[in-house]
Amino acid sequence: LPGETVTFTAVIDSGNPVNYSWVLEWDSGSIENITNDQNIIQYEFVMGGVYVVTCEAINHVGVETASQQIIVEEPVGGLHIVGGCDDQNYVLEGRAHVVLDAEVVNGTNVVFNWTVTNENIQQDGKQFNHYFEKAGEYAIQLRAYNALNGQSLTCAITVEVKISHVDLEYPFAVITVGMNVTFTARVLGGAPQSHTYITWFLDGTELED
């Protein structure tokens, strides 16, 4: 974990006297020469990442080196979807293209997994990229984890079909004064129905429910 101090010990089978040189290399390519001429050093790893610690033992007749890879894991924290996602609507015109990007504030060697509940859809990686073929309400679960811990969140989206046509139906060709008439609106498209709203007007004035 970041902040932990690790002790390294160099052991040689033979050779005397011996001088020691220590080098620490990050996965980013940075190199730090550790000032210590002893066979034992202590080093505090303040950041997560992959490191290679190399010790060089030197005397007048030869040189020997040994290296050790160290993986410093940082717990996953601050999982979020870029730009948010809750209650987002996508219009289905043939297919609805949904793209979501995941990020974490902290964490090393993080694995991302996406699952659409009630659908046989799973994807790995920081980006979710899928074409939905039918309208409906979907819950997309995102999980981010490493060897230390994990975090999850759920993204709610609605894929909608555009309303293509509305027909107004009523049972009588001729309506007389005082007659109680039921009008029915037949909507083509507009799925899912839970996201389709109908407003009635009489001579341009909106009617109350």
Structure described in brief:
The protein has 209 residues and is an all-beta fold. The chain is 0% helix and 56% strand.
Primary descriptors:
209 residues; mainly beta; 5-stranded mixed beta sheet; 4-stranded antiparallel beta sheet; rod-shaped
Would you mind describing this structure in some detail?
It is built from no helices and 18 strands. The chain has 209 residues and is mostly beta strands.
Provide the fold topology:
Blueprint: E1 4-9, E2 19-26, E3 31-34, E4 40-45, E5 49-59, E6 62-72, E7 80-81, E8 88-92, E9 96-103, E10 111-116, E11 121-124, E12 127-132, E13 136-145, E14 150-161, E15 163-169, E16 184-189, E17 201-202, E18 205-206
Parallel strand pairs: 8-14
Antiparallel strand pairs: 1-4, 2-3, 2-5, 5-6, 7-9, 9-12, 10-11, 10-13, 13-14, 15-16, 17-18
